Structure to design on (337 residues):
């Protein structure tokens, strides 16, 4: 067996997990917490329980909600200024990938005292961030457990990737109930994002036995539950399975990395400010077509994992069946080109 490193944040998963934010902030010795979120999450009611839990611990807090989809560098810099002015010492992110990535960026800037765009690349974060608590409200991005932060470079209209174990959150409080307020379009986009995470991790050159287990389980869970999550938005069993699928996919891609889909999706999203999950969903089938010849056994294993009786399919038909599988799912959840 090859020597492999596996990195993941501590996480707590289950109903009402978000109500433990105050306890964990207290464990980190917090005196004042910066809550990073967006207006939609506040309106959905998911910030209030976090505030209540901080109040119960006697911890002060300030809310920064000027975060947009595909978080911008200037939003990170604004949040870092508030963190420093308010003398905060812990960050809590409540939301999808955008608030969580923005929170990571804020932590980086506050500890390293440079503009966020200067940290693009791998292991460019030299000083650890303040303690970070992440509370995901979508099932897909896995920013709550990953060693990635994606920020939009506003002047260059492109996304930058910051990859470092320094941006892995200290604790993720994964509460499936928070996903019940997602719209069907957001459920679809984030769910397909999780599927792409798992696909790319499984066929990655950096995959391992450990990441393979998580990637295949993620594909299984997302494929079986995404359509139900849209048609039955209050079905907590389905929502929980989607959260679990996102978690498995996150553990896979954070350690096996990603591929051509995300490379193109980040470019497209940075240029057009398009929803990240939708970009991924549209590009996945094309990447299978392009990459299949380089990893046919891996793609075959994915198809067999979803359809155990597909072993008799001819080799030349596997690619088309796999492309059809992801295309049919994309269209079924309402994502068109």
């Amino acid at each position: 067996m090859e020597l492999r490193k596996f990195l993941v944040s501590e996480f707590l998963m289950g109903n009402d997990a978000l109500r433990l934010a105050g306890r964990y902030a207290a464990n980190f010795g917090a005196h004042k917490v910066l809550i990073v979120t967006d207006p939609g999450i506040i309106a959905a009611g998911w910030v209030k329980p976090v505030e209540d839990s901080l109040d119960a611990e006697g911890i002060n807090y300030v809310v920064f909600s000027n975060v947009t989809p595909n978080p911008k560098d200037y939003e990170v810099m604004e949040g870092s200024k508030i963190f420093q002015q308010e003398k905060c010492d812990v960050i809590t992110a409540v939301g999808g990938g955008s608030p969580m990535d923005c929170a990571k960026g804020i932590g980086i800037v506050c500890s390293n005292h440079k503009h966020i765009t200067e940290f693009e690349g791998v292991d460019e974060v030299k000083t650890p961030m303040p303690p970070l608590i992440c509370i995901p409200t979508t099932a897909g991005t896995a920013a709550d457990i990953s060693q990635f932060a994606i920020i939009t470079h506003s002047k260059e209209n492109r996304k930058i990737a910051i990859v470092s174990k320094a941006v892995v959150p200290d604790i993720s409080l994964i509460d499936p109930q928070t996903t019940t307020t997602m719209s069907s379009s957001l459920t679809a986009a984030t769910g397909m994002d999780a599927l792409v995470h798992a696909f790319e991790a499984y066929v990655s050159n950096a995959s391992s036995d450990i990441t393979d287990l998580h990637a295949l389980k993620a594909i299984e869970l997302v494929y079986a539950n995404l359509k139900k999550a849209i048609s039955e938005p209050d079905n907590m069993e389905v929502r929980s399975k989607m959260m679990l699928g996102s978690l498995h996919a996150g553990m896979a891609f954070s350690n096996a990395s990603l591929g051509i889909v995300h490379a193109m999706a980040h470019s497209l999203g940075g240029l057009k400010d398009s929803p990240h999950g939708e970009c991924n969903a549209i590009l996945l089938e094309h990447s299978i077509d392009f990459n299949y010849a380089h990893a046919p056994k891996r793609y075959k294993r994915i198809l067999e994992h979803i359809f155990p009786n597909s072993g008799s399919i001819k080799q030349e038909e596997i690619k088309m069946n796999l492309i059809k599988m992801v295309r049919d799912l994309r269209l079924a959840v309402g994502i068109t080109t």
About this structure: The longest strand covers residues 90-95. The chain has a mean pLDDT of 95. The longest helix spans residues 209-231.
